[in-house]
Target: ATP-binding cassette domain-containing protein
Amino acid sequence: MINCVLHKQLHAANGDMQLHVSFKLAPGDFISIYGPSGAGKTSIIRMLAGFLKPDDGEIHFEGETWFSHHQKIHLAPQKRNIGFVFQDYALFPNMTVRENLLFALQKNEPVDIIAELMQVTGLEQLSNRQVQALSGGQKQRLALARALVRKPKLLLLDEPLSAVDNAMRESLQTILKDIHIRYNLTTVLVSHDISEIIKLANRTLVIENGIIIKEGNPADIFFPEKPHNQLLVNGQITEIVKTENGQMASVLLPPQIIKVELAENEVDHFQKGDLVQVSHQKFNPTIKKIEP
Ligand SMILES: Nc1ncnc2c1ncn2[C@@H]1O[C@H](COP(=O)(O)OP(=O)(O)OP(=O)(O)O)[C@@H](O)[C@H]1O
Model:
């Protein structure tokens, strides 16, 4: 459990801003911090990591005090059980992938974790390549692997996927999700991307002007009018068959085909080949034609 109360006066271009937040993270939480530019998201992450000292407040992590203004405690980043990937992650350009990871390993720690992390992040084939010869996505994966070398419990990510193209972003999101589960992490991710947040996080803090204005499940926050577990996805009707109660459409949502019962008044509306939007609630999918 992480318990945080943070207060910091920040110097924005248009005047001072008071950052005032209080939140708890349960073990295994994947929290996203969302909000407009300048709201204070990066500052929160940096205070959790120990790179920015709050003016007041406390940070408690599983019984340890990382920061307490009152008790004059401010643990250095290396004394906190964290891994981090920031926007300006600093890899050593003249070292190889493996050397960068070895460099992050503490003395006398077993080196097995290096091979494991290269495998998890798909960097095995690039083990001996210098960082300066890596693509953006590969550097991102290396930064992520490096953040995990010391087996942290808390992973702090400040828009780590913002500089890569969509396909790479999706594959990195999958890696992130796997890593979060595999290493029993509590993860805090700053992100501007709502679909990314929905995919990865179980809780979102929405920050504006240094204050948490909303907090909760991402689907509830970003799509409040929709039922909790509803997803909208596009598919194509592959078949319509008669049933006892009416008609049933088979809809291809790669890689699966789902069955959708058609209401009486919908029967003549759909035909094989139609592109449709599926409102996919757990037990009751419905479809709507996508007009060309
Ligand atoms: N060390 C600091 N001391 C005082 N003010 C700071 C400090 N670091 C950042 N600020 C100011 O605090 C405000 C919030 O910055 P922060 O980087 O936390 O916002 P953000 O929500 O992460 O924005 P973005 O999405 O653009 O990265 C900015 O106006 C910034 O200039």
Observations:
- The first strand starts at residue 2 and ends at 12.
